[in-house]
Design goal:
The chain is an alpha+beta fold. It has 3 domains: 209 residues, Lipovitellin-phosvitin complex, beta-sheet shell regions (Roll), CATH 2.30.230.10; 137 residues, Transcription Elongation Factor S-II, Chain A (Up-down Bundle), CATH 1.20.930; 129 residues, no CATH class. 35% of the residues lie in helices and 30% in strands. It has 17 helices and 17 strands. Strand 9 and strand 10 form a beta hairpin. The protein is globular and about 75 Å long.
Length: 511
């Protein structure tokens, strides 16, 4: 078939690889962000081909040169110096099981640096000739909009070039000028094909891999998180000894960089409660939001305990309390201790309505993220659907049959529920039941949307059908965040009459 892609045996292919990554604010904001560029030679050859057409390819990066311009930096770009260890790891080949544009498996050295392996994954991803679609996801009022496009040039079943562009845009829905855009561009272009070593005579992929130099284990194809170790990071106690003199010279706008923030997190993770509390009390007013966000990000028990003692929701400035709640809600992998702290600050406390609203939405986000990490004690089982009878209404005209059933899949059953998650969910539901004003109901529905617990779908449906316009819209928005498998194909669309006479249709996204 002319569409079957393949690399010929006994041939060494040399490609030119170029990478450009840019991090900056969304359009319309200032100033420009940082960028990184890299170029390298990529060599590929076929080691084995089985009767079904699956090929084992060796991919090797050589002569990598990189430059960067950090965010906010002035002057010419800086060359990135690579030490001998990094160069040695870069030149170690990876191996892929490949079938006409589909990567079936990736093999490499699992002991090498995650950053180096991720770079190799990026190169290998260009051989995955499959289309990707962009989607928009909203979490806690944050829109995440990823998109990608790729251009492949193939001649005589051989890949001539690949151009792949990808972007991820994160922005606050209510503050559209606040956001960040990460864009990348990868290019692979065939330079030459020359005679190379003959293919192995082994009959299986495993035997061919065993015959290559080094140890090669199966690796995940998707990139893994990378955390850079902190060098020259003092202890918090040592930092506090010179804090007063530092404070007089500190420009907070320049200090609040990504590097400085990571440095603070490292300090706070190993600090004792009394030292963190001392820092919070001694920090100048303009520096407090920075320290609070760092303490939340650290998520150590002493740091959270210090925050608990320091923050008074009945007295502290509203802006600082909202900083804490936003930092908690945006935490990518929150702990139950962080959820417990937020619950403690919200339970029975007198506070500004705006702060309580922010706290309730943050509470939903924390519950949802804990469940995504399988830390909430909720068992989700699509094998036990729950039938929820409800009237089918369309512009107020009954249909036949008079009742339809919505089958909920993945209904949550509590085996050994995490008490914090259970308490958090009950707090949101109780607030929704007792809401007297429309905006209060909307706030709690937003919280349920962030939590994404299937057991709350009946509640959301009720408000989507019976609530006033703003409440129904919030319930619909929450329902749209559930995955399609939570609802069977018996009811693919839920039609809801809105007071303004517009028929709204909830389309559960199939992702």
């Amino acid at each position: 078939s002319p569409w079957v892609l393949s690399f010929q045996p006994g041939t060494l292919y040399q490609y030119h690889y170029a990478l450009a990554v840019q991090l900056g604010p969304v359009a319309g904001t200032s100033p420009s962000g940082g960028w990184l560029q890299a170029q390298a030679v990529v060599r590929m050859r076929q080691l084995h081909r089985d009767p079904s057409g699956d090929e084992l390819l060796q991919v090797q990066i050589q002569d990598l040169k990189a430059q960067q311009e950090p965010e906010g930096a002035e002057g010419p770009p800086m060359d990135i110096a690579l030490n001998k260890e990094v160069q040695s790891q870069l030149q170690k080949p990876v191996f892929i099981s490949w079938s006409s544009g589909k990567i079936k498996a990736l093999y490499g050295d699992e002991t090498e640096s995650t950053l180096i392996t991720n770079l190799k994954r990026g190169v290998v991803s260009l051989l995955q000739l499959q289309p990707h679609t962009g989607t928009i996801m909203e979490i806690l009022g944050i829109q995440w909009q990823p998109s990608s496009r790729s251009l492949y040039v193939v001649k005589d079943s051989l890949l001539q070039s690949v151009l792949a562009e990808e972007s991820h845009m994160l922005s606050l829905v209510l503050r559209s000028t606040t956001g960040v855009k990460i864009s990348s561009r990868q290019e692979l272009k065939l330079v030459s094909s020359t005679p190379g070593p003959a293919v192995a005579s082994e009959q299986s992929l495993e035997n061919v891999l065993a015959g290559t130099e080094g140890q090669h284990q199966p690796l995940a194809i998707a990139s893994l998180p990378f955390r850079r170790g902190c060098t020259h990071c003092p202890s918090l106690r040592a930092y506090l000894k010179t804090f007063d003199s530092r404070r007089a010279k500190m420009d907070v706008s320049k200090a609040a960089t990504t590097w400085q923030f990571q440095r603070f997190i490292q300090m706070l993770r190993s600090a004792k409660k009394r030292d963190v509390l001392q820092l919070l009390k001694r920090a100048p007013e303009e520096m407090l939001p920075f320290v609070v966000e760092a303490a939340v990000a650290a998520q150590s028990v002493p740091a959270l305990a210090a925050l608990s003692d320091f923050l008074d929701f009945s007295k502290e400035p509203r802006s600082l309390l909202e900083t804490f709640l936003y930092a908690a809600a945006f935490s990518p992998r929150p702990t139950k201790e962080l959820l417990r702290l937020v619950l403690d600050k919200l339970d029975g406390k007198q506070m500004a309505p705006e702060v309580r609203d922010t706290g309730m939405v943050a509470l939903g986000s924390l519950v949802g993220k804990l469940c995504q990490q399988q830390l909430c004690g909720l068992q989700v089982s699509p094998a036990n659907p729950v039938q929820v009878p409800r009237p089918f209404r369309s512009f107020g005209v009954p249909k036949t049959p008079p009742h339809s059933h919505l089958t909920l899949l993945g209904f949550c059953s509590l085996a050994k529920p995490n008490q914090e998650v259970k308490h958090g969910t009950e707090t949101i539901l109780m607030g929704l039941r007792s809401a007297e004003k429309e905006h209060e109901a909307v706030t709690h529905l937003l919280a349920l949307g962030n939590a994404q617990l299937p057991s709350t779908i009946p509640t959301l449906l009720e408000h989507a059908e019976k609530g006033p316009t703003a409440v129904a819209a919030a319930a619909i928005s929450a329902l749209r965040q559930f995955r399609a498998w939570h609802i069977t194909s018996e009811v693919p669309n839920i039609r809801i009459p809105l007071p303004i006479g517009v028929l709204a249709t909830i389309c559960i996204p199939a992702h």
